[in-house]
Fold these 4 entries.
Entry 1:
Amino acid sequence: MQVYKLCLKIIKKNIPVMLIYIFIYLSVSIVVTLSSSRQNNTGNDFTDTKANIAFISGEETPLIEGLRKELGRQANFINLPDKKEAQQDALFFREVVYILRIPEGFTQKFMAGEEVHLEKNSVPDSAKAAYIDLAVDQYLNTARFFLSTMGDVTQESLVKYLDDVLSQEADVKLMPAPAKTDVYGLVFSYNYMAYSLSSILVLGMAAIMAAFNNRDLRNRVSCSPVRETAANLQIFLASLTFAGVAWLTQIAFCFFFDIENVLTMNTVYLLLNSLVFTVCGTAMGFLIGSVVKGNEAISAVTNVVVLGSCFICGVFVPAQLLGETTLRIASFTPTYWFVKANNQAAQLTQFDLSSVRLVLSDTAVIVCFALAFFALSLVIRKVRRFS
Amino acid sequence: MVVKVSNLVKRYGDLIALDHLSFSIKEGEIFGLLGPNGSGKTTAINCILALLKYDKGEIEVFGEPMTPESYHIKQDIGIVMQNVAVYNELTVYENIDYFCGLYIKDKALKKKYVEEAIEFVDLGEYRNFRPKKLSGGLLRRLNIACGIAHKPKLIILDEPTVAVDPQSRNRILEGIKELNSNGATVIYTSHYMEEVEQICSRIMIIDKGKAIATGTKEELKAMISLGEKITVESYDVSEQQLARLRELPNIVSVEYNEPLIVIKSSKGKNNLENVLEFIKKENIQFGKIYSELPTLNDVFLEITGKELRD
Ligand SMILES: Nc1ncnc2c1ncn2[C@@H]1O[C@H](COP(=O)(O)OP(=O)(O)OP(=O)(O)O)[C@@H](O)[C@H]1O
Ligand SMILES: [Mg+2]
């Protein structure tokens, strides 16, 4: 295990540099955590500007019409196709803050007093969305109240009663900010991993690769009785150890910054996502280490690649502030998909297959990036060897 | 035979780096590979180590064909590369420990060997230094320690003393002799003829990938016609006198680069005496006068028509 130990030693010598990234991560996370909790305290960030929402209905009935009219007081309707991807993108880019989808047969069930189900999706942490959500609930609850007390009424008269009642009291009411499950803090600490963890991974991997790409050292080791396959296996194991330890360390910090959400299903998907991203970062380090020579050059390239992708992919700056072109370019980096998957994982409220699929499909893109990086480095190494 | 190379041909495109090179090395020898820059020494070594594919020829080490998969053969070879190959992330001690560990699994034995190697190259006070902080000569010594720590049966050193100061160089050369007397066979490449003369029991001179002469240094010197080189320091000598000097028996050539007259004579008796007599007779004023026996450089010069070193 001589080669394995050597790799770990090389990593160890690079720990001081890696600590810088951990330090930056910690400082930024602390600042973000503090400022987002201060935002919580300022509380009622109610504004009377209308929220953009999507109202998608599988049927047209007087009841639905009434609800639409009621919501129209507080919201602009944006047309969205009835496709989950498009809707998630619209939320991600803040085209809408809230999406209400009414399934077919809703009215019939509702009027019969059966249990009904609405699909709601919203931008996390948005007061406007919460306000709309409340309005929806209020409308339906009031309707249910009329139904149960008045017995047999037609939809038309029900809608009329509702219109009368709600137009009187609900017009301008200052809503308290919703109780916050701090999704933003949670996602931030994971998103920011794209900077700290990938810097660390790329640095470490590149340092290992640099040591083994050096022609003189490679020749020297080839003269020894250590088999090439054994040596490669040991390098692989060492990389695995390193990536694993780096991931665990990073995850520990994420948990620390978001202790309340650790036991949610959302965190499971965030973890899966970050694990896949770790593999991808390792492969990227492998690639950079295969292409770039010299320690200074490696850290320069690492900074450019990692920092650059973090800027354009919405790690430092929220994605909705970035232009469409930027985001289109960003989608050629794994970081973009990592951030997207994280944001979606944090927003999940239902964990059925179709909701989860959205997260997993983005995670799958990261896997493809990892495979591509890995394959590319193997090709480069092969070409180099024969030249 | 520890190493047997027959008809080795190595081409780099149009360049023939090794041209039907053949030699064999017996156990216990210090075999010197002497040649100017670019003559193919490193290429030959790399072929022996199976680091390079070659176009033609056979190589046997310890009586077996050498291939990249001959791990049991590699176990007994120690190699000091011309280019220093050490890890910048590791200290002097860790580097030697790493390379020794590639061969030696037993921890206690490894530790002992590493200490001995540090002692051997006298790097004790630098053991915790990183290679970047070592001077060129110290780095060379580290490179040597990494190559020989595991006490191999065959030690190959490719110009190990470049940039090493004369004192350390002598120490290294003495050390190599010591390793040899402890049973190791040594291949030593260099373009310093003095080194090769000092330690090698047999020498092969190569030029442009061809072996031009092989033998002990005495044998090599016996191969050439030059017997003696006499140098006279004088500011006062005429062309006529030089011409008459050329007429003397055994004299091969006379050259005058003020103030030195270099007189080369073939093997024979009384060469120096004849020259002295001539100078007296001609009444030539002279300062120093001395006579040298031929060096390997003269051997190289006579066979190839050029100097071994620029
Ligand atoms: N990788 C290579 N590609 C092309 N030509 C090469 C390569 N390596 C060596 N050569 C050529 O082969 C010849 C022999 O080189 P080699 O390194 O064996 O010489 P050397 O005797 O070791 O010289 P030195 O004393 O400078 O170390 C030189 O002309 C060199 O330019
Ligand atoms: Mg050489």
Entry 2:
Amino acid sequence: MNQTVFAPWNDPEAKPLIQFKQVTKKFGEFVAIDALSLDIFEQEFFALLGPSGCGKTTMMRMLAGFESPSSGSILLAGKDIAPVPPNKRAVNMMFQSYALFPHLSVWDNIAFGLRRGGGSKEEIAARVEEMLRLTRLTKFARRKPHQISGGQRQRVALARSLAKAPKLLLLDEPLGALDKKLRQDTQFELMDIQEKTGTTFVIVTHDQEEAMTVASRVAVMDEGRLIQVSTPDVIYEAPNSVYVADFIGDVNIIEGAAAQEGDAVTITWAEGQPPINARSTLSLSPGQKVHFAIRPEKLTISAERPDDAANAMTGKVLDIAYLGNISTYHVELPSGQVLKAQSANTRRIARRSFTWEDTVWLSWTNTAGVVLEK
Amino acid sequence: MRRFTWFNATSLTLGFAFLYLPMVILVIYSFNASKLVTVWAGFSTQWYGELIRNEAFLDAAWVTLRVAFFSSTLAAILGTLAAYVLVRANRFPGRTLFSGMIYAPLVMPEVITGLSLLLLFIGIGLDRGILTIVLAHTTFSMCYVSVVVSSRLASFDISLEEAALDLGCSPFEAFRLVTLPIIAPAVISGWLLAFTLSLDDLVIASFAAGPSSTTLPIKIFSAVRLGVSPEINALSTIMIAIVTVGVISASLISKRSAVRQETETRAAERI
Ligand SMILES: Nc1ncnc2c1ncn2[C@@H]1O[C@H](COP(=O)(O)OP(=O)(O)OP(=O)(O)O)[C@@H](O)[C@H]1O
Ligand SMILES: [Mg+2]
């Protein structure tokens, strides 16, 4: 795909487009954003992920200018944006609630921002038509917002914020109401737009798959703080905490005591069970309590004990969840711990190898999981 | 639905009779052919004809209409601005006091409002005439507008204004292009309310009016003291018609916009 890797966050010379510097936002006594520092670079597709109420919308509203930080500062292209009113910022926001103008047609909603920009009638019309085509709303151009469906309304909101092609685009859950197919198409459209125009995107999403697909970097938030900011693959493969591992995707967590030798770690976790062999660059003190996190798809399920596996455990199939392309097996170990293992359904369902109550082996390599301190 | 019983029917009839019998009688007698108000002598519209030829009444009607138009327009503007500030502005010192004070004229005895306005006009040396009536009517009808408009603004989604700002509007443009069109039905029904209030106000107008600026209610009142004439009945019937149309359209407009708002929110909740 990319010939040169796009990674300005690793380049000490690169100038960030947005800088949050120790930003705190309080609503009364309630701390919505807690001393948050963050750099976002030009042309990034930056995804904010986190549970409801963790402060994602608040961060966007501070960028757009509807809230000001209680302390700390936000810089846009090196300049403090605190004194700049929302209508003077080269930032457009797509609202979580869409905020479509109910008295204007879809067409006029999309044209609204363009008319403020002072282009000619023809330019505006061409741009609106382009946006309508992009969001597949051409047929609904003359309707009022209350005459279209929820997903269509969401697309109008998206089109309206895209129309001005701003330097920075803030999308607050832009695709939540769309069906999967349309969502994927729109994701690719967004990435396409981003590539063509070089716009910087900050996107809030509850859908981790979406964050994985579109984002150059993902920030996982909790209670107004950033827990981890990294590329999607690092977030997925090397989460820095149980919280992140658990938040992104499915994961098995095993708690135990660590013993380290070089980068080889053995984790004793239950009596009568073989210790877990893993690798880690952390320096752990002997006997330190750690969590071992491993994704279900990294576990291999088999009838016999594999000969060369670094880790192998036996257990009983408790439950099978059939998801079409894959199945998730819930396997209960003798210690009572239940591990989830995924395998691709390469055969028809009637011919799968394991069923309820079967005794199976789970195995994984010593690099398949991660050791987490917290 | 409750059953329709004789008891319900009777209380309904009595209630409405109490409210509307006087007016119905007035309307009926305005079509009386006889000069004597209390004797029915057949149907006729002659009093309406005489009314049109009565210069004094026509002058008063013209004054009243102009006063009602200007005062309700002024009240609609000022009342909308006041409502906007009260609903939108962040807490500022004295906000509670201000919002309480704006509604005070609603419950203030008209005589007091009228008297204090009279003192003010004399104090600043303003000659009493149409201008002073307009000012006085604006004063007392503006709070009605502000009540109607602020209830609409309270349910107005503030993120619409934020979206307008975000798309490059100045705060004033956001108000003009987004807020105002959406609250327009409330402003219009507030205007109609102020218009009808001004049309039939007697007490405050008699304090603020000068010799050259008699409004219709004042004219009627002084004419009645010399004895009720069928002409007055005809005039009153016309006023009743105008006020009724005004009040009904005001309530229809606000009900229609409430219904539309509800469908919009319901549609929004379907997401
Ligand atoms: N104007 C406000 N006054 C008081 N508290 C607020 C205000 N705005 C947001 N909050 C609080 O700040 C916290 C963060 O809100 P925010 O809207 O940023 O959450 P979010 O991460 O966007 O959540 P969601 O995923 O549900 O949209 C919440 O606990 C919320 O209750
Ligand atoms: Mg939110």
Entry 3:
Amino acid sequence: MTDVAHQHGPRRIVSEVQVLRRRRRERIFVIFGLASTLIGLLVLLALLGNLVIDGVARLDWNFLTNFPSRRAAQAGILSAWVGSLLVILVTACIGAPLGVGAGIYLEEYSARNWLTNIIEVNVANLAAVPSIVYGLLALGLFVYGFGTGRSIFTAGLTLALLILPIVIVATREAIRSVPQTIREAALAIGATKGQVTKDHVLPAALPGVLTGVIIGLSRALGETAPLITIGALTFIAFLPAPPITSEFPFVSFEWLFDGFTVLPIQAFNWISRPGRDFHANAAAAGLVLLIMTLALNSIAIVLRYRLRKRLQW
Amino acid sequence: MPGAIDVSSVLRSGAEVGPVSMRPKIVTRDVNVFYGEKRALNDVSIDIPERAVTAFIGPSGCGKSTFLRCINRMNDTIPTARITGRIEIDGENIYAKDVDVVPLRARIGMVFQKPNPFAKSAYENVAYGPRIHGLARTRAELDEIVESSLRKAGLWDEVKDRLQQPGTSLSGGQQQRLCIARAVAVSPEVILMDEPCSALDPIATARIEELIDELRQNYTIVIVTHSMQQAARVSQRTAFFHLGNLVEQGPTEEIFTTPSDPRTQNYITGRIG
Ligand SMILES: Nc1ncnc2c1ncn2[C@@H]1O[C@H](COP(=O)(O)OP(=O)(O)OP(=O)(O)O)[C@@H](O)[C@H]1O
Ligand SMILES: [Mg+2]
């Protein structure tokens, strides 16, 4: 008995010292983590504050409903925010189904072979391709190749390609996190693979998929370079054709092929001009862009929360 | 015998259990399963009688689940798994080229170790199978199937007032009975159960065992279990697996009282496993 106590006594003291040291290291790490979080947050706040101070005075109804103008005080962002909205709409309509479809295919259907591996590596690489390269590709392929023009459609298509890897990766991750037991449960009562995917896997993965799509869209919303490359306008004093018409069939897709500008381009255009007034306009446009992005992200958060609550294992 | 597990108290004599039909529902011959290069089952041949409970017992990793999952071709979903040999249900080779696994799996229900209800309402959990197989033409018919399935699973009285609540909000034992109802709802002929009680407390376990005893009137049941008592209580026939081999099979009473193989003897008395 006493022998055992002798053997264990000293060892326990050593381990207590170790625990103490580990605790201290842990505390240092926590402080470091907190500090870096705070720094990031502060910088963001400073940027935001700067933007607000410079731009908030210009933010009024007229700013939202006026076309750009040579006179800073009368210039507005109507064509820019409508352009941004429409381009994002097209991006979502093309990018989401393509990305989600590819994600489902890769995760649920594709055989594990060299071809799949190549596709996987390429998807990962695509995410790292600079956005200007997408612009160059789109200029050559869509504008000159397919003749889609310097239009909203081309812009949406280009940004859809840009967000594709983001959507694919998010979709795959969301699908992978659906427990295998759910798939087996459905297969075991004679569901087909398609039914399992449609009725069980996708609903369960939806929060993650939507988050991916929306993160992709907020990225697209801020893109400038590829759109300048494909020839977005910088000064535009008209709106695209209306989507609803008074004549049968009452909807029109003419707007798809109209010229456009987007908020970041408008902001860039103003900031590159001399004069404080235009800089204030740029800040205000930046604020609107930021608000749109935050709105998108809040939608994502609400959706995710709502859907998560419905889905629990 | 030190460490022996006494099952004699729960064993039921042949007279008590009633006659066991010996018409084989499932016949397997020389079934081998490989996971990649690794062989998990060696030449398993067994006849499983209809309308009776057959228990698979054996130490962990001996291939019970693997064999069970061959019977509804669930192993098809594992890319590395390869199976050779024959498995016939009612004389029909289920691994024949022209067999469609989808209707096959509807005929052979499965209940898993961990209750795995869908993230849908209790009602939808049961209704899903009949719906995808078009078993009900009207809402009323579907309601009827759901109710009768839940009754068969002994769950109706507990959930009839909260059919629209998520199946996942039920207790573990209720979830497992919900899974049984889900399996029963598509009118299978066979129900495979892989350690259906291992995540449940003794009371919930007793409910499920009662249920299995009732279900045996209409279904062929195969149950994998680690509990010797459970095998003795619910099954009429028992098969003992060891290291991928089917060592011994026969009437449960015989396996537990007069096993012929020393490995079976050792296992049921608690010396290996
Ligand atoms: N998906 C798989 N891939 C590779 N090997 C597997 C796979 N599933 C099972 N095995 C192997 O096959 C053998 C049999 O496994 P199985 O799950 O059938 O055993 P079991 O008898 O059900 O065990 P337990 O009682 O622990 O559930 C084990 O050696 C296991 O490691
Ligand atoms: Mg098992």
Entry 4:
Amino acid sequence: MTMLNPDFAEELKQFSEDSALACFNCGTCAAICPLIDSHFPRSMIRYVQIGAKERILEAATELWKCLHCGLCTQTCPREANPGEIILGLKRLVLDHWRKS
Amino acid sequence: MTQAKEKEKQHATKVGVYICHCGGNISDHVDVEAVRRRLEKVPGVAVARTNMFMCSDPGQELIAEDLKNGVVDRVVVASCAPSLHETTFRNAIRRAGANPYIYEHANIREQVSWVHHGAAATEKAATLVEAAAAKAGLLRPLTPIRVTAARHATVIGGGVAGLSAARDLADRGIPVTLVEKSPCLGGQLARLDRIAPTGERAPELVRALADAVLNHPHITVFTDAQVIATDGYIGNFKLTVRQEVASEAFTGTEACYIPFSGMRPAGPSPSEPREFNLETGAIVVATGFRSYEPRQGEYGFGDFASVITLPTLIRKMAEQDTEGSFLEIDGRRIRSVAMIHCVGSRQIPGIHPEDASGRLNEYCSRTCCTATLNAACRIRETHPGTRVYELYRDIRTYGRGQEELYEQAARDGVVFLRFEPDQAPEVVRADPTDGYPLKIRVTDTLTFSENLEVPADLVVLSTGMEPNDVSDLVEMMKLPVGVDRFLLEVHPKLRPVEMPVGGIFVAGTCQAPFDVGETCNAAGAAAVKAASLLAEGHVELDPFVAEVDAERCKGSGACVEACLNPGALALVEMQIGGQTVRRAQVTPALCLGCGACVAVCPENAIDVCGMTLSQYEAMVDAIVADQVAADALR
Ligand SMILES: Cc1cc2nc3c(=O)[nH]c(=O)nc-3n(C[C@H](O)[C@H](O)[C@H](O)COP(=O)(O)OP(=O)(O)OC[C@H]3O[C@@H](n4cnc5c(N)ncnc54)[C@H](O)[C@@H]3O)c2cc1C
Ligand code: SF4
Ligand code: SF4
Ligand code: SF4
């Protein structure tokens, strides 16, 4: 069970673009992304939406597979800017590692 | 005309047969040319022609030319279902100066080419057209029945549908009586605040509409009133209206708007219940809907005081219209509100329990998605500290300006979760450590079907629509009801505001879930239909009604007993050959043309015009003759 954490969005603001809630989970980004993991990068966007910080940290290494090709951001119909959020999450994770 | 005379005339007629390709819809499966050749040889058929599209202008022109040139005097078109184009061809005949009832239709698309293929299709098509030609040979010109129509309309229900239908009718100069059951006008719209997608204030809309109605010289309004009896027929309905004593006496000399009730017309309200009669030409039924009432325990409803319905939320928000970081409901600060969609709508057999009378609401209520998003946006914009979660099955923001509201909600920070119908969210008491009174457990398909928990101070159930119980009106006026219990129009596309009983129309959410715009569309359509019906002072009805052959009738009265519509048939005294006898007599305006009487008459003395027994015998003969010929070849 994961309890939704509405305060995570606030925490993330210092690291990342605050556009995750614009995402309506269509999956276009996951389809266009050259990486093969089925839900990436939507998986990360979704965890941001519900504030599942633990989930993001658990799967942190995934973030470094991102090529920053920008295809997801280009194709996102809601302009949720998934590519930027992935970059922002890397900053969050680095900050977390530094502190721990 | 007696049947003997009809028989005589048979060979005097010149039947024209017109066979349609329907672009290929028919001719891909039916050898249209072969059918034409066969029909050409049928006795009584003067010409048989084909066309790519009989319903096109050139197609209709073929018929008109033949009629004008005297080549034909009876017409058969073999094409699609008569519900589509029978009227088209009757009108073409009328325009050519002939009587439109010399027409017979053969359906060789739905009944042939769409369901049969190859030689069998051609064979069946030819047989159906031969039968139609045989019947056409016996058709005679008929005159539509003309009945005078009272220039007055009655609207039942004073919600936005009833109000706008009444206003539209009265604006055309037609006197209107509006009968509303409750003490106020405005219906459910009066129970809303800012409405989607425009953000207009519902009280202002209701007020404007109700003012226009109450101040209209052609409209009489009765509140606390109901129609308790109906009689008569199109153009000549007789209604009995009963007005109760208002539960709260109202003495105001001016109409006043009561928030969340509606517009109360000027008093004084009557001190005694009263009943009165109305003669009216047309009726618009606009009895609206009620909100679904959740079952005890459904998503915690009734178990937890902080589980409320969407209409309740809308009212509480309007009544405590305070600014501030957090929404406050009943004096409680709401940090987190969870809204659950599709409560009491889109129920699925086997998943959702039936109500006490064994029913399920399988339909989508259509307005709740948008109304929920509208409320969510409003909360986020006026109380940015309050978090909003929406748990949905599907988001159905189908209309103009509604998808924008969905996008707006996302931009306002509303978090969406999606559940499968068989994995409904569960509203439970939260653990003391959770910091919230309630939480919702949900298997969220957007999060890869992980189990999530949503913390909540308030849970809002997006309850759907159910039609108001109008079983008394349904019974009295013989209105058809769909499996969803909403009133059922004659045809959902082609005749969307008409009831099968002539002169009765339907408007608004008593027919289906509609938003306010759609409700007004329907009301406008119903008003126009009613107004055009009443404009002439009389109405013309199809002449397909029973007709008695007084020479044959022996007055047994079997037909009167069999008749389904009281008043359509009666035994009356008349003079025949110097003697007073009792014979059956038809009241054409009341006759349904069902033929129940024809079946029981021992004397063959009663027939339905345009569908006489001898015409059917001729059809059967034609079909059997085909069979005999085929057997002979074998
Ligand atoms: C929670 C909620 C939110 C909504 N939000 C929106 C929105 O934001 N935007 C939007 O466009 N639409 C919205 N709607 C839909 C809107 O409320 C309806 O489209 C509209 O009110 C329908 O009007 P109506 O006249 O058909 O029915 P009603 O408003 O139900 O009116 C029917 C009237 O008939 C009367 N009546 C019933 N039976 C009888 C009888 N036997 N004899 C005499 N009178 C009778 C009733 O008392 C009532 O006054 C919402 C609906 C709900 C439930
Ligand atoms: S930017 Fe990263 S997440 Fe986006 S498509 Fe490219 S590789 Fe995939
Ligand atoms: S493409 Fe955009 S809207 Fe669609 S899932 Fe990815 S981030 Fe969300
Ligand atoms: S409009 Fe939305 S909430 Fe209402 S029944 Fe349809 S899908 Fe469910």
